[in-house]
Amino acid sequence: MEIETLSGIIESILFAWAEPVTVKELSQAVKTSDSSVLAAINYLKEKYADRCSGLRVTDINGAYTLSTKPENYDYVNEFVTKKNIKSLSGASLEVLSIVAYKQPITKIEIEEIRGVKCDTSLKNLVDLNLIAITGQLQKIGKPNIYETTDDFLLKFGLKSLEELPTIDDESYETNFLEEI
C-alpha cells in the first residue's frame, strides 16, 4: 500500500477515535507492518507541519492521536466551554497537581498533604477523565489508588509525566498551578 493511501487511512482512524491509538492497534487495523504504520505517522506529522493546519499528530506514551496545535489553544478554549480545564476550582487544580506529582496516591494521602477533604475534587477530576482509579491498596478499607490519565497529558500538552516541571516537595502544588 502506498504511503499516501496508508497515511489517509490512519488519519481517518485517528480522527474518528477519540483516544490515542498504538502502532500495534493501527497495524492490526490496516493489516500492515508496524514500520509501515510508523512511516505513515511520520508522513502525517510532516504533512501537518508543512501546511497551515490547526491539527497535529501527537505522541502520548507511544500512542497517537490527532490534536489541535498549541498555538490555537486560546481560540479552541474560548469556543469549548464544556469541561474546560480553566473552569476547575482552585481545590481541584491543587488535587490534580498532587496526583500528577505523587502518583500513585490514595485519597487519604492527598488529604494529608492538603489538610482538607478532597472528595468533590476527586469526583470532578475522574468525571473529566483527568485522573482515574487504577486500583486499590490491599489494606483495611481498600482505598482507591489515583493516577493521571492520557487525557491529562493531552490537555496539558505533555508526552509523558517526565515532562512535568521539576519542583521541590514544599512548593509542588503552587509551581504546577503556575505552569498551567
Automatic annotation (TrEMBL):
Organism: Peptoniphilus asaccharolyticus DSM 20463
Pfam families: SMC_ScpB
Alphabetic keyword roster: Cell cycle, Cell division, Chromosome partition, Cytoplasm
Transferase found in the keyword field: no
A Gene Ontology biological process term: cell division
NCBIfam families per record: SMC-Scp complex subunit ScpB (TIGR00281)
Protein name, as recorded: Segregation and condensation protein B
Domain of life of the source: Bacteria
